[in-house]
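Recall that a protein's primary structure is simply its ordered list of amino acids. Everything else, from secondary elements to tertiary packing, is in principle encoded there. The following example makes that idea concrete.
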Amino acid sequence: MGWRRKAGIGCGAIVVLLAAAAGTIYYLKPWVPAIHVAEPGPTGRRVTESGLLANYYPGRGAGRRPAVLMLGGSEGGIGESSRRNALALQAEGFSVLNLSYYRAPGQPPDLDMIPLETFATALAWLRRQSEVDPGRVGIVGGSKGAEAALLVATRDPGIRAVVAGMPSSVAWQGFSWERSGEFGSSWSERGRPVDYLPFGGWQWTFDVSAIYSTALENLPRHPGAVIPIERTAAPVLLLCGEADSLWPSCPMARQLERRARERGRPAVTLLAYPDAGHAVFGQPWRESDPAYGRLDGLGGTDAGNNRARIHGWPRVVAFLKSALGS
């Protein structure tokens, strides 16, 4: 009986250790992305007027310039990657407002009921700038920022170009990085929730996209969640990775493309990359840069994601120049 007692004590100790480890992991929350509000640097300035928090990069060159509102993803704040893309567009002659819409100090901590009016305010501010041509404004977003960009474009007839990296075809349920709970829509309008698609069932795999792909099977029961892309006349460029393990961005991009084709507008260009994941969008990295080795974190390979960027980023710039003028 002694060996059974010792075995029971051993198993009990293992359970306690596992429970302690789980508690420590939950306390530290290593899955939660750090909150960054990147400094604008010497060619930009911080914007805090009108309740906004953004970095502004005025375009170089004579006369009024085309402009872009740039939106990051569910990490919130203003990340270094988003800042890097904004600087690259500034160098091409665009005025860029790189906006934080949640998680930064003084902003909502959860991606839940974020007012679409935040983006309308940002666009209004951008159009008022003396170096901006208010008739040549586009919007660029990645991931949740792409979801927001598409929703805004269907509401603002003044938008002249839309670039959506890793896009969504629907408005999704909200969530929090920090806490559990019941969340409604990610977005609100005039204080009311935007119709949304609830998440699907969780599956114990490393592919988080299952909660999205299973939810899309229920889309016929939530028709109001569909982004009505036909409500914008602006040309749309979509970029996605076939190996995206965060959410099914290529299937959703094809839903957007098909809806636009069936309804006769807008003009949609889709760039889909087979060996890329959720890091498909943005400027390419040098292989010697530490960021290069993290490109495969949400699907695809480092090389595949970077190849997609090498091919895709120049096409983003060319698309914006064609739609907004250089």
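The longest strand covers residues 132-142. Residues 3-29 have pLDDT under 50 and may be disordered.
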